[in-house]
Amino acid sequence: MAFVAPTAEQLGLYLGLSEIQGDRADLLIQQAIALCETVVKPLPDQATAVVLSVAGRAYVNPQQVSYETIGPMSVQRPSGSGGLYLTKADKAALKSLAGRGGAFTVDPTPATADPSPTWPVDDTYGAGLEYEPGWGWV
Asked: SS3 for 137?
């Protein structure tokens, strides 16, 4: 099954808003999808949660205000404020949903490898002793 983009109504439900600006929400969802596709393309089916998170952040806080005081007005914005962005957790979630990232093992042994010794054992070596694998000449 392919990724299905969330709707403006789903974004409103995600944010807990009874009314939502449909055109603005659709634009933010499209931009969030484009941003997510810079990490993983095509998007996995479950990427809806990340897309809604990214679009929701931009919908409720478009200027990325991180500090606000109402009584003689004070606002703090980071430099380069505004717009959509992916957090480190968003990127990790997208990679995980796509089955990428995490620990893995690479076996460098070719499929045609033979487990037998690469040189013959010389039975005449060692003054009449027997060769025992793992112990040597005994």
From this structure: strand
d(CA 95, CA 100) in angstroms, rounded, equals 5
Number of H helices, E strands in the chain: 4, 4
Query: Could you tell me if 29 and 6 are in contact, meaning their C-beta atoms sit under 8 angstroms apart?
Result: yes
CB 101 within 8 A of CB 92: yes
pTM: 0.61
Q: In one letter, which amino acid is 52?
A: L
pLDDT tens digits, one per residue of 2-60: 888 898 888 888 888 888 888 989 999 999 999 999 998 888 888 989 999 988 888 87
> Could you write out the DSSP letters of every residue in 111-125?
TT---S-SS---TT-
Q: Which of 9, 12, 5, 14 is nearest to 48 (CA)?
A: 5
| Residue 127 in tokens | 């003054």
Rounded to whole angstroms, the Cα distance separating 64 from 26 reads: 19
